[in-house]
Amino acid sequence: MHGTARPGVRRAWTVELRPEPGGPILVCQQCSHSGRPLSGTSARSELLAHLAGHARRDLLPAHLRTCQCHERGCSWHPRHRGCGGPIRLVLARERGGRLWRLADMCTACAAATSQAAVVPDTLINAPAAPSTHVGVGRKRRRPRGPNGQTRVREMLSYLASALPAETGPAARLIALQCALRMNDSAQVRLPVGVLRSLRLEPATNSWRELHQARWLYAPPPTSRANASAVVVQLPDVGLFAQCPARPDRLVAADWALRAACHVRTGCTPLPRLITMCLTAHTAPESIHGVMEVDRLAQECGLTTTEFVHALDRLAAAGQIGSWSVHSVSGDLHWTLTEQGEHGCGGAARP
Fold first, then answer.
1. I need a surface site. Which of 89, 153, 230, 313 has the fewest CB within 10 A?
2. Three-class secondary structure assignment of 281-311
3. Domain presence at residue 350
């Protein structure tokens, strides 16, 4: 049973991108910013930042958050077995990306909603790490919050909604590394060694794909190009503004790289992406996992049918041990191969 929300606090926000001759405009149903023109190259980023601002201003204790979908008669998704599970903050898009909604939803409703992804609370309300000047004799810092595997899992969920559905596996692998390696100015210096480890170099088409999706852009060159790294800028700073400290994110980026490199050398990007995704959703010290198959497919940019066919190929090649989909719940159960058998050697340095 859901709790009673605090009067006057909404936990569902909807914005719309309306095309106009002079460029798209942002129409928000909750505030006075309706009709604000946006830059065509960063419209989606500004839209997501606007939604994130609402979520930060309207924070509620966990016990007061309710399923906004349930309160509206579960009209945001096809019929399912009923509401239940913890309340999550979910980002969903409709009408080909022209309408976006950020709302509190129960786990069951979130799973039944198409083109939706859970937004980790750490991306919205985690306190920013204070910047302090310390001397040479400072103590070694301790990681804060979730471990690297959890951060990768959270970022995969976010990217499932933030990236266009047709984004390819190579571009998704690059986007994940960029999101976890950006600095405080949302700039990324991605070592070429990372691309080599993922067998993606030079990844020209993938960079172009992310640029055309307006998810990143290259800043004007200010100095001689550095052949050891690719430098890009992420305009999507809204949901990343409260990310954990960069050292912790770099640990997560290294974890994702090693998980993807577990696949045998010479594999195409899709097996690497799927294997990393399955590993991220597998409990530490275990090789068995379970999750909704449609969620995993969405995180890999595939339809459910495409995803299960890819699992067949991975199992036949010995990249995963076994898999099956429960006929009633739709959950995917899988068994990974033992870790470390086909590693990529040393991972690239951040």
1. 313
2. CCCCCCCEEEEEHHHHHHHCCCCHHHHHHHH
3. no
161 located within any domain: yes
Domain that holds residue 115: 12-125
Is position 133 within any domain?
Answer: no
Extract the tokens encoding 60.
């509620």
Asked if residue 203 and residue 101 are part of one domain, the reply reads no
pLDDT of residue 274: 95
Looking at 76, 110, 125, the residue that finishes a domain is 125
What domain count does the chain have? 2
- CA-derived radius of gyration, the chain: 20
pLDDT for res 122: 56
The backbone torsions φ and ψ at residue 334, rounded to the nearest 5 degrees and listed phi first, read -140, 160
Where does residue 23 fall: left (phi above 0), alpha (psi -120 to 50 degrees), or beta otherwise? left
Phi, psi (degrees; rounded to nearest 5) at 218: -90, 130
Instruction: Output phi, psi for 296, to 5 deg.
Output: -65, -40
Considering the domain architecture, whether residues 241 and 319 belong to the same structural domain is answered as yes
Q: What is the pLDDT of residues 192-210, one digit of tens each?
A: 889 888 888 888 889 999 9
Residue 291 belongs to a domain: yes
Question: What is the DSSP code string of 167-190?
Answer: --HHHHHHHHHHHHH--TTSEEEE
Please tell me whether residues 185 and 114 are part of one structural domain.
no
List the beta bridge partners of residue 93: 100
Separation between Cα atoms, residue 209 and residue 168, nearest integer Å: 8
Q: Are residues 178 and 87 in the same domain?
A: no
At 322-336, the pLDDT tens digits run 999 988 888 899 999
Helix (H) or strand (E) holding 15: strand 12-18
